[in-house]
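ok so i was messing around last nite and threw this chain in just to see what happens. nothing serious, just curious
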Amino acid sequence: QGREKLGCNPRKENGSHVVLCELGNPMKAGAHVDVHMELSVSGLEDVGDAIAFQLQLRSKNSHNPNSAVRVVRVPVEAQATVELRGMSLPASAVLPTAWPAPEGSRRPEEHGLRVEHVYELHNQGPGTVSGVTLRLAVPARLGGRLLLYLLELGTEGGMNCTEPPGLNPLQV
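result:
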């Protein structure tokens, strides 16, 4: 009828984490108790899509001291906000309609203006992020003419990149 806060105590029992809540003693025959629990659980990054709790009532009643174990599966949903930031160096450039590249030249500055694009991926949390794939499409040609010559690709921070086909075909 009334609402009470229960005192619950976490402890380890046979290698498992157990939370023991005292509901009160003695209870009258046929008593009905609803218990709403809020648990804070950490370290769920690798548990998959659900976590299972085993619930059991234990009593000092000698006729039926333990209820059947009930398993409650609670879905786990990871949440993280990932932000992609990008910039170009220089921020803007005016290109000529045609750039005559000297035949056989291996100097990048003779093939056009160097423009560097930098992308940063930031995890704002609260969860950790792994297995992220970033696909970046760069327009190399426009109207059948060379627009951007992809010279090199580099990464920092333990990421792996797959080099796009056609990266530096003239070996500049």
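not much to say yet. The longest strand covers residues 116-126.
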